[in-house]
Design goal:
By secondary structure, this protein is α/β, with parallel strands linked by helices. The chain has helices spanning 69-93, 138-148, 150-169, 176-196, 206-216, 234-247; strands spanning 3-5, 27-28, 103-107, 114-115, 118-119, 125-128, 133-137, 200-202. Helices cover 40% and strands 10% of the residues.
């Protein structure tokens, strides 16, 4: 299976600085919260299938350059499928059983989806350990897709999927920033390894797209690194992502 991450016309990222995986509560409920709570009702029609692994094939690969909702939907599906295959292979190599994240849920209104009784806000993407699902504001995410590009959709899904892997491995940190920077590294590893294995093909310039997107989602310079919800500065997030991209999971401190 080969999926292509295509190019997107460049535009200003200033409007994305607030919330794009930098919002507090990227992992809602924390990785140590017990699972078992179901999300609140969600709309059945959205860009990601809520049930079961996706299986895109070469015939589903699209041409570059469009910004349609249909392409966004396919990119989310592709990113989820590649992440599942990647992490299944990692667990298998370690002799462990892999359990995919249960659902990827789009939502359109604040409070439409809840995690452990906590309503999710607009303009966000989160992993919920309580229900073992990823949820994202679809309207905001499509807007980000159109501004930043489709390569960043793969990063967004990869970052949240990494939080699910942290939960499966029982990884806990004293500070949010440690958890978030490790997830950035893990997202980089998933993408870099997928490119090297030819499961994913990047066009020229897509690494710059990742870099520009990461620069847009760093914490405000005045935010203390030890504050709850801190994700890291733009420089820290970029360094963590590309460390994983270039050196794979051994650079992410999982052992």
């Amino acid at each position: 299976m080969t999926t292509r991450v295509g190019r997107r016309p460049r535009s200003s990222l200033a409007g994305l600085v607030v919330a794009l995986v930098a919002a507090a509560g990227c992992v809602v409920g924390g990785v140590s919260e017990p699972e078992g709570q179901e999300p609140a009702p969600q709309r059945p029609d959205g860009p990601a299938s809520p049930d079961g692994p996706a299986s895109p094939g070469a015939a589903q690969t699209r041409a570059d350059g469009t910004t349609s909702v249909e392409e966004f939907q396919q990119d989310v599906t592709d990113a989820k499928a590649i992440a599942e295959r990647y992490w299944a292979a990692q667990f298998r190599a370690s002799g462990e059983r892999f359990r995919p994240i249960r659902r990827v849920i789009p939502y359109q209104r604040a409070g439409e989806v809840a995690c452990g009784g906590q309503p999710l806000p607009r303009n966000n993407a989160v992993y919920c350990s309580a229900g073992d699902f990823i949820a994202y504001d679809v309207n905001w995410s499509v807007g980000a897709f159109r501004q930043v590009g489709d390569a960043f959709v793969f990063y967004l899904l990869g970052h949240e999927y990494a939080h699910g892997i942290q939960a499966r491995l029982g990884i806990r940190y004293s500070y949010t920033i440690q958890q978030e920077l490790q997830a950035d590294c893990m997202a980089g590893a998933y993408l870099g390894d997928s490119v090297r294995s030819k499961a994913l093909r990047l066009d020229d310039g897509d690494l710059d797209e990742f870099r520009e997107g990461l620069l847009a989602v760093g914490d405000d310079p005045d935010q203390p690194w030890f504050a709850e919800g801190s994700h890291g500065t733009a420089e820290q997030r970029t360094e963590s992502f590309f460390r994983g991209y270039e050196r794979s999971l051994e650079a992410c401190g999982l052992t």
